[in-house]
Amino acid sequence: MIVTLLAGASVAQAAERFPDGRLPPVDAPASAYGSDIRPGSDGRPNADDLAGIAERQRQQGHPILALQLAERVLDYAPDNAQARRTQISSLSNLGAYARANRLRERFQPDWPAATQARFDADVTTAAIRHGVQEQARQERRQRYAVRQRALQATLAELNANLAGFAPDSDAARRTRFDRLVVLDRLDLHAQAIADYESLMGDGVEVPAYAQAAVADAYLARRHPEQAATLYRQVIEAQTTPSLEIRTGYYYALIESEQYDRAAKLLADIDSSTPAWRSRANPKTPPVPNWERSEVDRLQILDATYRNHESEALARAERMQTHAPRNTDAINALATAQRARGWYDRAQLTTELAAAYAPRDRSARLNMAENAQDREDFPLWQAMIEPLAAQFPNDSAVRRNHLEWQDRDHFSLEGQGTFGRSRGGDAVNGSRDYQYRLRLNSPWFAGSYRVFAEQLTQWSAYDEGAERENRQGFGIERQWRRMHWWAAVSGDRLQDDVGLELGWSQWLNDRWQYQLRTQTESPETPLRAEGQDLDGQLYQAQLTWRQNESRQATLTLGALDISDGNLRSDLSADLTQRVQASAHHQTRLIGSLSAEHNSQPETAYYNPENLRSAGVALEHDWLTWRRYNHALTQNFSLGAADEWEQGYGSATGLDATYGHTWQLTRTWSLNYGVGWGSHDYEGEREKRWFGQLGFEGVL
Description:
Structural class: alpha+beta
């Protein structure tokens, strides 16, 4: 922020007077300074002439020469007013504001109002630099409550200067530039953007240092394209742009979904940021480059953004190994572990960071986010509410706090399927639909809520249509990765009233089990329901989850139908993610299933034995995203070898295509179409269907 005043003279003029950039010796005659310098009565150069040359040197952009000349004059003419003014101005130009201010207060120079205004602006610039350094120092010490005080004082100073300076003066213009920096540092981003756009409207060219602050403000206000443009201009204008500016440009590219450009930028940052800073003296050992750790953390985040969770974890583990007590490294490791679904492991890591730095913002936010994933709701509340009060402008804190507040609202979810079949009538009929609607209350007493459900199933068969309507009410509790629920349902809660009970628990980061039972189960075939039959369901499920990319599930079930038929089934599936990038994920799913019915001779589809072995490919394409808004296209293709006792084997085929819209932070909509072809009792049934679903917080 060192400001130099260029007043019409060229650098060439300075070079003509002092070609090598050096002054003549102290005892040199007046002629050594130029033919226009008169000798003084004491044999020295005339003080007024030399002071005038010093001021011209300063105005021509050579404050070091100007300072040397002015102080040379003051050695033998301490009362020379021009030399004193030039000395103070040159010190200010060079950024030595504190010394310049002491001299100004001591000698009270008589200079024009414009010069005084420029000097006052310089003093405030020094205060800004101090305020920025103080903010960083207090951040490192986790003294967040006082970190803004110095900058808040400089903002008041800037506002006072603007009120006193002439509106079109250089001092007023520079004060407006400096004010952009302070507004950004104080998280007053909207005001910084408004002031910048006002400057642009006035046709004022904003310097690079102020453009960087405005770019930060645009990024914070979720305008990444404008931010990226400004960051790029700053980088092009500076010979060695800071890591902070280049990092801001990286985030702007990521948030505007320009991942390829972000990758190239990160590669440049990585190659230009060594682990050690060399020293001029080769015998002196190098010193660590603190910026390297910033780059390493950025690479961990970059891998996470691209859904390369294993790479992110490997980088985080290496970083934490090299700096085992570094809180930033520990927090990065906890974030990488959580991205892999290892919430218990991440909890231990986060507790380590909190032990080293209990007031650290990142450690506390990690604790809150991990408590959310682990469903430790009292801890989540205890961590996020003080954070939200202390850091209201932190986007990550604000988002997590909003998610906590969502628990105080009703939520609604629904899913429906509508189908039409050709060639068979055994299972789905010629037409069918079903939908489920559920309204959830806010959570109360920490981890309880009640809900109401509506379930409707309908199919048109050759012999007539069958329909089932069930309304239900229930209560559930979810806490510390345990979940139980109980519900009653029936036709207007008068006929065929049934009970559902369930329990689910994660034993650790790898294993989960679930137990469920239903009387009057909705899984009873509709044709059986039409004959006043009912079924009682018993189901157990075991899930093994290695990480975000691999999971296996084993399900055992039995449906005891009131006609004496016991339908027992066993199924297993393995999901393996085979490809992942920032916008694409592909999964391969292998499945096996077997079903046995104890009484196959029934009026509903009920073969004695069924077997199936299949494979499916699913792909999600994140086509468009803008913060809380996104469109994902979903594709799936599946094929299976299906065997039915008495009819032999046949190939089953399935294909679906759909869209998932993230409409807001809390509302999403999904819809799609699908096609399936399967053999039932030797007849090939082809079915087209559509589906529509939504969920959100009221």
